[in-house]
Amino acid sequence: MKILVPFKRVAxxxxxxxxxxxGAKIETAGLEWKPNPFDxxxxxxxLRLTENGTAPKARLGEVIVVTFGPxxxxxxxxxxxxxxxxxxxxxxxxxDQLDGVIVAxxxxxxxxxxxxxxxMLGKQTVDSDSNQVGQYLAELLGxxxxxxxxxxxxxxxxxxxxxxxxDGGMQRVKVKLPAVVTVEDRVxxxxxxxxxxxxxxxxxxxxxxxxxxxxxxxxxxxxxxVKKLADLGIDLTPAVQYVGYxxxxxxxxxxxxxxxxxxxxxxxxxxxxx
Length: 274
Fold this sequence. Notes:
Elements: E1 2-6, E2 9-11, E3 20-21, E4 26-27, E5 33-35, H1 37-49, E6 51-52, E7 55-59, E8 62-69, H2 74-83, E9 87-92, H3 100-114, E10 118-122, H4 133-141, E11 145-155, E12 159-166, E13 169-176, E14 179-183, E15 193-194, H5 213-219, E16 224-228, H6 260-269
Parallel strand pairs: 1-8, 1-10, 8-9, 9-16, 10-14, 11-14, 11-15
Antiparallel strand pairs: 2-5, 3-4, 6-7, 11-12, 12-13
């Protein structure tokens, strides 16, 4: 099975309080870059689907990671290669050139070139939180899709059995390959993914795998191809334009009340929530 995983770098969400809003743009200078957490989950799920969990060093498939960004994003890709991905692609682009539709168009072209059996994405990125690319991509490809996957079972490399998070609870569905699947955090729990050769009794450690030093060194030798966004032959007109940014209004300081009657009065007449 060949799996393509879009893999984005984002400003470290732990440093969100250091982001500055200037009005014209969001200033992230000086912030550390990290892989988007949901994309890390997608890579881990892809690795589990292309191995026997009892002998993970024997690769039984291929995982290709792709990102859109400047040369500095190569470090993010090398991190994915160190955890076990086989190849990487970086499309030269800047964030102001991209929106969900353009990324989906570009991914559709890469799918035509790479010909994967499955595209596995994080359900969203933690910077824009748009939750659009997977759905747009499935529409452009004409492939079936499953969103918000919590568990995935490979059925002979021809279909997947997926438990997904729905509005009314959990849903168990099947999808034929090729397909587009977006994942959430539960997919990297111990029983989140089962490949065809992995015994049902096998349980992984929760979370994404750690890249040891030898794997980090070996990742430097794995192929990393660079493409130009303009060379993909897609419409680069954005569907979304950001015209400005402003922080939320500061919250007023709280006040103390002496009685329940006073509290009810303030909630009704000042806060107007009753």
